[in-house]
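INFO  loader      accepted 1 record
INFO  loader      residues=497
INFO  predictor   begin
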Amino acid sequence: MSNLLPFGIGAWTFIVLYVSSLLLVGWAGRAARREDTLQDFYLGGRGFGFAVLFLTLYATQYSGNTVFGVAGATYRLGFSWLIAVHYMLAIIVFYLAFAPKLYGVAQKRGYVTPVDYLKDRYDSKHVSLLGSIVMIVALNNYLLAQLMAMGRALQGLAGPYGDVAYRYGVVGLALIMLIYGTLGGMRAIAWTDVMQGSVLMVGFLVLLVLLLNEFGPLAAATEQIAGSAEAFKVTRPEPRMLREWVSYIIVIGMGGALYPHAIQRIYAAKSRRALNLSLATMTFLPYLTALFAVIAGIYALAYVPGLEGAETDQALASLLRIIQEGSLIGYAVVVVIFSALLAALMSTADSAMLSISSMFTKDIYGVHINPEADESRLTKIGKRCSWIVVGVLVVLAIILENQASLIDLIDRKFDLLVQLVPAFMLGIHVSFLRSGPVLAGLLTGLTIALGLAFGPFDFVVAGKVWGVHPGVYGLLANTAVAVVGSLLQKPETRHGV
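INFO  predictor   done
INFO  writer      dumping tokens
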């Protein structure tokens, strides 16, 4: 293993102890379970106060995509990718637009999965089933991105042994999170998120200090890029980028607020006050995370030239390798940073895994396959589902090693998730939405978004139509069908409005 990663015995001891602590938390979470129910396993008994809720939301939102995907996108596009700060902030804004009201309804109605709200609000198996499928497909895409990000982290650090290290990273991450996630459920994952969120915050701050110490001020890096063939990446973005910025704010801001695993954390809050305080505190974090990832991408563009395509997602890891080789202090600090990167990846991947498991188990298996199953049986099925899903995604991550960038993957995920905006964000505030038009709108939006994204159209460039995500066009049509269709019918009051 020392040939794959330039770490010595001390570093590996630290990393092993860190990973072992996560597994111990998994055992502790199992021991703390009060009952063998879906609510206890998937929501931790709805007992998360401010500290736990804030750190688990933070650790979940800022993932391997933030660390590696944003740095990689900045490497490819330059300062124009400052949009990452804006769309991360937009997620919090859209949380605040619907989460407090959804929390109140969830407490009264006993929701466990995001789809429970759709069932209760629209009283339609078709809406619920399609919502489940959309969320599960989107989260599988997300979990795949996290596994690939772990591989890319090791790939960048390993240098000439990168391909082998990539496979170690994918398989290792999968095994660790499967063990502690299936042992303790949401409680174990939230408790590990407290550890990982804390490490992640410190890691980002240390990363900025390391970059400044090793490479000098950001202005010097910018000047170096300005004198190269990549100079256009540090100049003012073209006017057409404005459309792309607005598109990202809509599709990621709204879609990110509808992450199924984030919605389940809303359900798990101990009180409305804990939820509101957690979300308010998170408004400051894009400047500590996404902004620092952009800065890292600029440094990599200046001092690690030559990365192309999917290789650009190795930009941050390549910087860390340079820092590590420069001094003993750099070596020690990179070990801590590497642990923070592990934290970012696992804290998001485990949440996505648990959410996929909960929706398949309760909303598909428990409704359409075996309605007679009791909660103990459903919990066991959920654990098996986690192992099967992650196993398939591990194989896919290895096959797709050099065939997709992390940003390309998350774009498709948000094109899907944003189609649920009318059903959730609008439906929680107004009473006139009806199940039939909502279903028709959702089908229309998905057809347009997926048709534009994957169809043979010359006007689709880099996955966008005139700089706008296909999901935005789908959302506009989706909303129009849902609203107009509902207004043409007699209004009826639904639960939760």
